[in-house]
Amino acid sequence: MYDLGHLYPGLTRHEVTPDMRSRKARMSECAHAFIALPGGLGTFEELFEVATLTQLGEHHKGVACLNIEVFFEPLRSLLTHAVSEGFIKTEHSEMLVFDTDPVALIDTLERWQAPTVTKWIGAQ
To answer: pLDDT tens-digit profile of 13-48?
Structure first.
């Protein structure tokens, strides 16, 4: 992205990594939480990766979606459907935070706690 000229001029700091894996690892190291904005496949991939790492206990950082113009409502419905079909525990579907207000979203993330249940369906 940097090579394509996609660098916001108001940044106080930026890092260029050699590849996507390094970029994601570095972002994870630096992040206190993760907030997805409406986006495409890359956004969804990164959102689900950090949510999965939370589910597995690899980190205890909040994962959120800034639900601008209810963009993420189909995702919320998908998570509810996955719970009803027995593929996801309720606690894991509810660990993603959704809000349309950025300030409220950050406030919620500051209080967020990781679920304390195993990922395995049928196990506590």
So the answer is: 888 889 888 988 898 899 999 999 999 999 999 999
* pLDDT tens-digit map of 82-105: 999 999 999 999 999 999 999 999
pTM score above 0.90: no
Secondary structure of the chain as H, E, C letters: CHHHCCCCCCCCCCCCCCCHHHHHHHHHHHCCEEEECCCCHHHHHHHHHHHHHHHCCCCCCEEEEECHHHCCHHHHHHHHHHHHCCCCCHHHHCCEEEECCHHHHHHHHHHCCCCCCCCCCCCC
